Amino acid sequence: MTDQSAPTTWWTTPYEDLRVEAREASGRRIAVVTFDLPERRNSMSTAMTASWVRLMGLLRQDADLAAVVVTGEGSAFNAGGDLSWIVSEPDAQVADLRTRMLAFYRSWLTVKQLEVPTIAAVNGHAIGAGFALALAMDVRYAAADAKLGVPFTSLGLHPGMATTWSLPDVAGHAVARDLLLTGRIVTGQEAVGLGLVSLAAPAEEVLGHALAAAERVAAAAPVATRLTLQAVRDGGHATYERALEWEALAQAVTLATDDLHEGIAAAAEKRSPTFHGR
Predict the structure, then answer these.
(1) Which residues contact 92 (CB under 8 A, 6 or more apart)?
(2) What are the pLDDT digits (tens) for 91-136?
(3) Closest of 48, 53, 59, 50 to residue 21, by C-alpha
(4) Cβ contacts of residue 213 below 8 Å, gap of 6+?
(5) Burial of 144 (C-beta count, 10 Å sphere; 0-12/13-18/19+)
(6) Alpha-carbon distances of 58 from 13, 62, 83, rounded to whole Å
(7) Which residues are registered as beta bridge partners of 20?
(8) Whether this model's pTM surpasses 0.85
(9) Which InterPro entries match (predicted)?
């Protein structure tokens, strides 16, 4: 019989079309999330979408969470949304379609509500909404031969999943106009030069690079990391002066933490610090 009093944890909860693993690093947890629908190139099924929303809600409750790494099973990262329903509903009204699409976007972009760094380990092709999801994460590593793109207009679609915001934010307006207007597909290797991803590697090594980055995040001071993340997300500060004002406050907060004194002591003693998030 299931213990109804036992707390729900994200690493013990069952999911459909997703696999989830908890890893320990520096006394904190790293969530490793794998899209698990390889026969459909890990496209965003209804079950996967529901699983994703549930997982994000549980991750937000984990005070010991350090970082989240997302990857795909098989040869693809994520092929994006399933558009078969559009063909089956040719008479759908604009208002209804808008409501449906907005709910879909917001379901997947719940990843942006996490207060810890999110890292996309793009092991294979990421197209349309699949690549848009990777762009919504904080850091991206990609397989050198992965195909990445947002070819919405070639299907007759306007871009979705906040791509007209996230693509310029990640790679600049010139690259965004190029990819969004031409719909051209780039490789992971080319994506490094465009600023879309930080690193390209053989497909079998991508997850390892992402996990190593997550472990470095876990080893850093939690309060400083979360404040820094808030400073640089979503286009960063609106003005130079706002950056100064934020940093004066946020740095003062970290100066008042025990972790700051631990970091200074560890540097002086030439050892690794042990941070506690306070």
Answers:
(1) 86
(2) 889 999 999 999 999 999 999 999 999 999 999 999 999 999 999 9
(3) 59
(4) 67, 119, 139, 141
(5) middle
(6) 9, 7, 28
(7) 33
(8) yes
(9) ClpP/crotonase-like_dom_sf (IPR029045), Enoyl-CoA_hydra/iso (IPR001753), Enoyl-CoA_hydra_C (IPR014748)
